[in-house]
Write a structure and sequence with these properties.
This protein is mainly α. The chain has 9 helices and no strands. It has one domain. It is found in: Membrane.
């Protein structure tokens, strides 16, 4: 509901559109902390909480779209991805006999990233290196999310994480293409719909972790 309201605010150029965006992460956190008492904290990992806090910081920095805050916003999301990587590794360590799927994810994303990066080229200007670093962390995060789907108990929940990260990548791809090439005002709605969906899937996965482990 918060996401739809924010997109409507953006589409109709209503005031307080930035505030409506910043309600997304807190709303998801409220969902995590107000579940049934026996589930409320069991599935909430410290590293995930740090990750989502940095996602919220990134949201705050990118409320105002300009070059000055774009880089700090990217750095916040990179830190978000770094802690998500730690979270996924805690859930399920990398095993040599299960490397195929994560490596395939890395390969596919590397190919897609190569074409997107090549398409934007000089349009990225001073953001060429930060975007490259960001793409690296996104690919690693996606590979580790895929790895969680191979957990003997968490495999179903792992798909929430993996699909969430994939939707997050779609959101980021639309964002960077629109930011540096298309410049369509209402394409931002697609960015936010996919971003909000991604964050929900990740939160839903975290909420299900303890249930999967107990079963």
């Amino acid at each position: 509901m918060i996401l739809i309201v924010h997109c409507l605010f953006h589409f109709f150029h209503l005031p307080f559109v930035g505030i409506s965006k910043l309600l997304l992460i807190p709303t998801l956190l409220v969902y995590l902390f107000t579940r049934k008492k026996e589930d409320a904290l069991a599935g909430i990992n410290f590293f995930y909480l740090v990750a989502i806090v940095f996602a919220f910081i990134g949201d705050m920095l990118l409320v105002i779209i300009n070059d000055l805050l774009f880089l700090p916003g990217m750095i916040s999301y990179i830190v978000n991805l770094f802690f998500l990587c730690i979270f996924f590794l805690q859930l399920y360590k990398i095993r040599l006999d299960q490397l195929f799927k994560p490596l395939m994810v890395l390969l596919i994303l590397a190919v897609i990233g190569y074409f997107v990066y090549g398409f934007l080229g000089d349009k990225l200007k001073q953001f060429q290196l930060p975007v490259l670093v960001y793409m690296f962390f996104v690919a690693i995060t996606a590979a580790l999310a895929m790895n969680t789907t191979q957990h003997p108990q968490l495999h179903k929940t792992g798909w929430y994480f993996f699909i969430g990260i994939l939707v997050f990548i779609v959101s980021n791809t639309i964002l960077v293409l629109n930011r540096f090439h298309f410049l369509y005002h209402n394409l931002y709605i697609a960015v936010m719909l996919t971003y909000g969906t991604a964050q929900y899937l990740l939160v839903r996965g975290v909420a299900l972790v303890s249930k999967d482990v107990r079963s």
